[in-house]
Amino acid sequence: MSEVKNKQVILKDYVSGFPKESDLNIISSTITLKIPEGSNDVVLLKNLYLSCDPYMRNLMNNPKDSLSSRAFTPQSPLAGYGVSKVLESGHKDYKEGDLVYGVTNWEEYSLIPAAQIIFKIEHTDVPLSYYTGILGTPGLTAYAGFFEVGTPKKGENVFVSAASGAVGQLVGQFAKLHGCYVVGSAGTKEKVDLLKNKFGYDEAFNYKEEPDLNAALKRYFPEGIDIYFENVGGKTLDAVLLNMRIHGRIPVCGMISQYNLTQHEGITNLAHIIYKRIRIQGFIVADFHHLYPKFLEFILPHVREGKAVYVEDIAEGLEKGPAALVGIFSGQNVGKQVLVVARE
Amino acid sequence: MSEVKNKQVILKDYVSGFPKESDLNIISSTITLKIPEGSNDVVLLKNLYLSCDPYMRNLMNNPKDSLSSRAFTPQSPLAGYGVSKVLESGHKDYKEGDLVYGVTNWEEYSLIPAAQIIFKIEHTDVPLSYYTGILGTPGLTAYAGFFEVGTPKKGENVFVSAASGAVGQLVGQFAKLHGCYVVGSAGTKEKVDLLKNKFGYDEAFNYKEEPDLNAALKRYFPEGIDIYFENVGGKTLDAVLLNMRIHGRIPVCGMISQYNLTQHEGITNLAHIIYKRIRIQGFIVADFHHLYPKFLEFILPHVREGKAVYVEDIAEGLEKGPAALVGIFSGQNVGKQVLVVARE
């Protein structure tokens, strides 16, 4: 049996407040690159690209204080979405050499239940890393959140926060493809430029330079907002509620501005949802995995023809994992934060 | 032409904070009991029963600070839902002697556009005042909010706040008829007794005697809440968000606890809607007027057979209007607050 070194990114202990690089550790363990005899429901993976996602912050909490009922295990590797190559399969649906996308561990090699695989990667004429983004969960999140939860109509006014992020950059493009007017907010000039010049947003602004978010939204939406694609929560949400139109919809994808606060900010304008008949709806992508084939059919031609673009922020090497993951909570990343473990 | 005295309840000026009786005034004006020549879209009404409703508080605000884009006009009579008798009609759909339900003014006689009439009262074997409650807008509000917005399933867990109020007492009864488990909250022992002994709530509690609303909800809903019928907002909503089940729904009918605050309380637990995929949806009954015939067909047999009950709090005489209306914001009323102008 071949036992090899297996570098891992582990969580030292549950985190409260802002996560720091020192909350994570790089350790070297070992793994036997062989599936245990008779295990017909596991696969052995070589991990290639790992996805750094905001929801992972909630999994660092002690589960008793968390939004999520799940949590990472202290002193064990993180887990998250990733692109991996099958080295050996105990499961009939997969074989050596397959490229797969699913929930894997933050380490070089992983032995995981085959049930954690979400799909097999069939199209390799596009960058493999895209399966952690535009062709993976963030892509499906944007698609399901905007089209299924947001129920957009042509000509409607759409606002997206964290608009250059892994999901936001796609929501803006989908909104334009659907014939909507779309405005995005982000936290740096560089990101605002991307929104306008790369992703096709009609308008964009830096929320850090707006002392009055309500006034900013009134400026960009004199007639109000039909759909607010919610990624951040907090003050932005409160200002949005003042600017929604009748029968507006707020698909709630995330509230990244709140995840590191021990006490979340209070939202004071909720009563506006009554007269305006607003629907605020939380969703998670796992409820929409069945739409993945339909989504892929929609998005692949756009990617191939350059009609949908995607900006990634690539960190090279598992050692960069702690910085890459922690960075997304202060907006260090420009575009989708990807961690490369190996390039095949 | 017969000119008669016409007592009115007028709003002195826009209100901020808690409304007081002194914000309203009783004045004696006059009215000519004759429709102006050639007016074929108005009706002349004798008002019988007026409805005291929480949404009226928002109409007392200066519209620039209000949730509603509409507002009462200072120095003019209030307007609201009521049961009236047609004295003369310029409109072909109505004739002298008809009993109608619609938006009328807080005065003895009103000349209003026929378009403000919502329906003609056809069934008079039930108390006429019921058309301001169980057979009127509150009834339709409970019906549409619970069945259409709440989309209940048999066996689900339902929580109702302001549960003995005009709408709440019906939501509880509808939930029981639908095979749900239902718990209500109210603000006095008398109301809690009504919930359990009159309206058939499975359980009920006095929120004023619960120092920890989260703990109270955990006691009554160890497995969580599927539907929260929201009438009050504020701390109750925040505690409910901690206790919702996955795919739960919150039809938002009102937030009466907030209407008299110049700054609404902050809701801090909204992020729970993401993992739990909660839908929070504001609604107003005007969007459901088309369901009234269907609703009446459903509710009338229940009323006649005593399978649906309704508790009214009756104030006699237009002079009692200010006290009756102001009282609902401190929970003085027990059941639906009705103001009798005349009994026919």
UniProtKB/TrEMBL annotation, chains A, B:
GO MF, one example: 2-alkenal reductase [NAD(P)H] activity
Q: Which residues form the Enoyl reductase (ER) domain?
A: 43-339
* Annotated coiled-coil segments of the chain: none
SMART domains, A to Z: PKS_ER
Recorded hits in SUPFAM superfamilies, A to Z, give:
GroES-like, NAD(P)-binding Rossmann-fold domains
The reply to whether Oxidoreductase figures as a keyword in the UniProt entry is yes
Q: Which UniProt keywords apply?
A: Oxidoreductase
The lineage's top-level taxon is Eukaryota
The protein's matches in InterPro entries, at most eight in alphabetical order, are given as: ADH-like_C, ADH_N_2, ER, GroES-like_sf, MDR_fam, NAD(P)-bd_dom_sf
Q: Which PANTHER family match?
A: PROSTAGLANDIN REDUCTASE, PROSTAGLANDIN REDUCTASE 1
Q: What is this protein called?
A: Enoyl reductase (ER) domain-containing protein
Q: Name the source organism.
A: Pisum sativum
